[in-house]
TrEMBL record:
Organism: Danio rerio
UniProt xrefs under InterPro entries: Lines_C, LINES_N, Protein_Lines
Name of the encoding gene: lins1
Name listed for the protein in its UniProt record: Protein Lines homolog 1 isoform X3
Amino acid sequence: MEVSELDFHSVFGLLHAGSAPGLSSEDLASRISSCVQTVTNTDDTCLSLSLIESVISRLAAHSFTADAAVYYQDVIRRLFTERNLMAKLVSLLSCQDKLVSHFSAKCMSVYVIKELGIAGLSSCMWTDACAAVLERSVSGCELDSCLWSVTAVIKGVLKADMGQNKRVLTRLLSALDSSITHLYRNLLPLSTKDPHSTDMKCVCKSMSEFIELLEALNAARLRHGLSSSAQRLSFTLCSSLLHVIRTDVEYVVKKRVLLLLKKSVLRRAGDDWALGDVRSASGEDLSLTEDLLSMADTVLQEVNAGWLKEVPVKAQASFFGGNCDVDGTMKKDDVILRAVSLILLKSLEIKMKSLGQQGSAGEIEAQQYLTELMLFLQRHVSLDSHRCCWVSALFAEQDDDMMEATNTLMALYLYQKRSCSDSGVCVWGFNPHCLFILLLRSLSFDHSVLLDFLISSETCFLEYFVRYLKLLWQDWTGLCRSSQHIEDGGGDAKRGSDLSIPASSAAAAVPCGESATGNQVETALVSRLVDYGSSDESEEADAVDCGASVMLVEESLLGKVLACLMDLRTAVSRLYNRGLFPYNPSSLLKLLNGVESQRNRLR
């Protein structure tokens, strides 16, 4: 029977039904091989390659009956052993037809992943071919498909539980390490003098695939403690990635670079697809802390050199089916803005933490870099008159990023609090009390959302919340000042207004960023209650009804914050007493009880 007489569509139908066709495994293997060996009809070749991939994938997923599994296993054995299909697939990588090249890469990848799961060894032919292509570093279909294949294999190992993932990855990466390192140095711009002069339009596809590979390498490092030379590149040679922003490449490539840097500095590479706990394995990689510090140093140096001024942000973000919101208004690309913000904030935190651990006499001015960040954001979005609003406004759609930003700003505040005055933190947008109040306000003071955050492991809210409550114990007056400041108009969504506070407000007596005693703040608050509780027709201004005062406290911004925290404490206690809370919250409840005592004093 001729190849043209074989109905691959019928075979696909039987395949998805979990059954085998009526011809022998030898005949099916022969006819598939004929379509692959001679690429006369692209459709037939792609269809046969897709069939091979589907068979291997369904065998790995145990989707066949016992008889059908034996049949298809024999087909794959005949193709890759008797007919040496791997050699042909390697040759198809360089096919000028992009579909054929890509389908061949997919076939190779699923077969290699299968072999790694069974024997722990990859095909030498595949490994050698990929190493050679990466060494040549010639952009085109062959390099793109090769990069895709290597990435797919690493991801396949990380997604599976092979029982020996670390050993498998160690062998795989050792065979490709030098080739990946060579490609990194050839594909990405190394020059710090004039990266604009490098024409990189022709390598955009290759760069996109390479960025995916770098993330896979980072994910393997975080989960299995591996630190080959290739895995350290995005940290130790971070400058090359930062220089991509200055080159003439497509916007999407620059966006992918920034997202890679963000995932790297946050230790989130592979979070959405890889198995394994990052924290349990990262401790084995002793060089990771050193490499993160190297990345942080590079980022801070580039920011000092004006890197933020060259980061592109499209005038309108991309949406499915168009570039505008449903109401027709234009939006900036918030993904880029969030990524840049977190890259800089985490770099600052890493640097400050390093200085603290080393007992270094040197200091780093967080305000300088936060000023640069504010200027960067101002060029693309309108900032609120109260700068602390930028976090809840920019990160509102991403809970995990918002918690990372807020937690990092808390760390920066605590660092600068030890090294310099507390004055003016709102100007740089990192007053922890303002940030906490604005966070609760963005959640409509709904304690159930905070409860979800505490239970979920998807954000760092628990770490941040405990940190903030400990600060609140030490600086109760800071919360009172910030509440007054925001309630008097310092946190309204007003655009382009002056940062100054009206002299008539109570906050003018106790500014948000200045130090004050507890008596001063409480006196200012009581004064407000007297003012609000007095009638214009009353001649006894000092007669304040106690019940009305308590009601005003409850209805104030500070009252809403405290009520939310008390509701949260009640909910956590109730769940814990019923054995429904996922961990022991005793320390957390102790901190919340301290808040209640302060609330009772105020009432």
